[in-house]
Amino acid sequence: MADQKWSIYMIRDKLGNIYTGITTDVSRRFYQHQQGTGAKALKGKGPLFLEFQCPVGNRQQASQLEYQLKQLKKQQKEKLITDQPSDVALYLNHNPHN
């Protein structure tokens, strides 16, 4: 279990809000969100759209990147979604202000 690969993901709700989370299985977690059994922040806010996902390594790395992404302004999150980087950590280091 310690060597599970973690991913970060971003979901857009029907109001255009962007939710950021981490998981070891993006498809499973997105399904949970769609069924209303995921985060409280997304309950009743469907339809939901998976806008971004990226493998990030271990849980600690995923949690750190999740925190960084949650600190971004919406405009910066939109740019990240548009750019669809394959390495989100590298992207954030090279685009600190997006």
TrEMBL record:
Signal sequence segment: none
Gene Ontology molecular function, alphabetical: endonuclease activity
Species, as recorded: Proteus myxofaciens ATCC 19692
Assigned keywords, A-Z: Endonuclease, Hydrolase, Nuclease
Domain of life: Bacteria
Family that this chain belongs to: Belongs to the UPF0213 family.
Entry annotated with the keyword Nucleotide-binding: no
InterPro entries in alphabetical order: GIY-YIG_endonuc, GIY-YIG_endonuc_sf, UPF0213_domain
PROSITE patterns per the UniProt record, alphabetical: GIY_YIG
Official protein name in the record: Putative URI domain-containing endonuclease
Limits of the GIY-YIG domain: 4-79
